[in-house]
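Materials and Methods. Structural model of Pirin family protein. The 96-residue sequence of Pirin family protein from Candida albicans was retrieved and submitted for structure prediction as follows.
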Amino acid sequence: MSLRSIAKIVTSKQKTEGSGAIVHRSMGIYGQRKYNPFLLFDHFIGANNHGFPAHPHQGHETITYVLNGAVAHEDFTGAKGMLYKGDLQFMTAGKG
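The predicted structure was written out as tokens:
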């Protein structure tokens, strides 16, 4: 394994998504496309949040790690699940 140096330190940008989740996005910001294979890297806070509208994940691999609280997840097929503090979820999206 070879060592690699840090190319750039990026400050996240805050925005609101879905029904009020505060998202701190450090990858996936316009003009930062050189971090292949990453598309997005988000830290979000969503106390009493009612979720996100339907959005495609076609071909994406998502990793969710819950720092505090709980996260409910539901996909377009109706499959549901709950993640709690310390839980880690890997999801492979199919057709979207």
